[in-house]
Amino acid sequence: MTKNYITDDLELVPHIVLEPNDFRTDGSNKQKNFANVKRRERSKYWRESLTQSGLEHINPITKASCKVRLRDFEDDKLFEVITAKSNRQFVPDKKALLPWYGLLKGQECGVSLMHQGEPIAPAMCCCDLDNIQDWDRVSKEMSSEWTMLWNGHPWYYARHDKNIVVLSHPTENDAPQSHDDYAYKMPRRLLRLAIQDAYAEIHAFGELLMLYWEAYGKA
């Protein structure tokens, strides 16, 4: 069997990073820099922070991250926090893929490719939800040559081997020199389904976000 060949349970998970200090009500710890929290204590600190705002039911996509997938945004407190930094005079950009995306200014967002609940191509630094368009593009292109896939940096490269999508390791260098230098392979059909589901999740989230904005967020 081909190494790292994925045949099932593939998801492209859209998410927002929830900074724990945005949810803390404990004034003595609110100014604590999360980056300075010891790595082994970060999950506990994040959980404690959200619990203080009554959000103990919210879980990150992986234990050690602060990334919460969009379909889990059903609580008004979450929308209150993520829109707090938005421009009160926000106007939807009707020409954009995500007309409501301006409401997320100041929030770190992205899409992570996951297999069996574990990230295999996580969103990297400087990523955003718009990166789903790059996943869409590389899933449709049928070139056998490596093409850049931007999901933040370090980025990825992808190519097609007939109906198989081949994904490189993350890098900040040029494309791999060999077709055998790859991280994962997956059927194009499986990746297309994951992308379609991610689009649906993003648009459903956008509808909820706009409902909240119409009700509470406007100036």
Describe it.
This protein has 219 residues and is an alpha+beta fold. It has one domain (10-18, 58-217). 28% of the residues lie in helices and 18% in strands. The protein contains 4 helices and 8 strands; from the N terminus they run E-H-E-H-E-E-H-E-E-E-E-H. The protein has helices at residues 39-52, 76-83, 132-140, 188-217, and strands spanning 10-17, 67-69, 109-115, 118-121, 147-149, 156-161, 164-167, 184-187. The strands form 2 sheets. A 4-stranded antiparallel beta sheet has the order 2-1-3-4. Strands 5-6-7-8 form a 4-stranded antiparallel beta sheet. Strand 3 (109-115) and strand 4 form a beta hairpin. The longest helix has 30 residues, at 188-217. The chain starts with 9 loop residues before the first strand and ends with a helix.
